[in-house]
Amino acid sequence: MTAPSPRRSGTLALGSLLAAFVGSPVMAGGIEDRRVRGWTIATQLCSQCHVIGRGSQAGEFSGPAFLRVANMPSTTGPALAVFLQSHHERMPSLRPDRDEMDAVIDYILSLKGP
C-alpha cells in the first residue's frame, strides 16, 4: 500500500476539520459566525496596531487593546460604528464595507466582560 499524496492528505485533513465543525454555532451561521469573521478581519486590518484578542501578543502597539475598548462604559455598537467611520489622526483610513464593520463590532463587543 502506498502513502497518500500530499494533496490527498491535505484534502483529507480539510475534510476532517470541516466535519468537526458541522453543527457548531460557527457553521450554523448567526452571531458566532459574524464574531469569527470579525476576528478574521481585525487580524488582517488591525493587529499591527492593536492587541485584538483576550491574551497578549508580541510586539509594540500604538492603539488600545480591543479588550480595553470593549470594556469602556461608552462602548456600544452604534458608538463603534461612528468611530470606525470617522477619521482619526493616528489611525489609517480603513474603509470596511458595512458587513465587515458590523462583524468587527460584533467581535469587539464579544470581548466585553460581565
Automatic annotation (TrEMBL):
The keyword Nuclease does not apply. Residues 33-112 form the Cytochrome c domain. It comes from the Bacteria. The keyword Iron applies. Keywords: Heme, Iron, Metal-binding. This is Cytochrome c domain-containing protein. It comes from Methylobacterium jeotgali. The lineage of its organism: Bacteria, Pseudomonadati, Pseudomonadota, Alphaproteobacteria, Hyphomicrobiales.
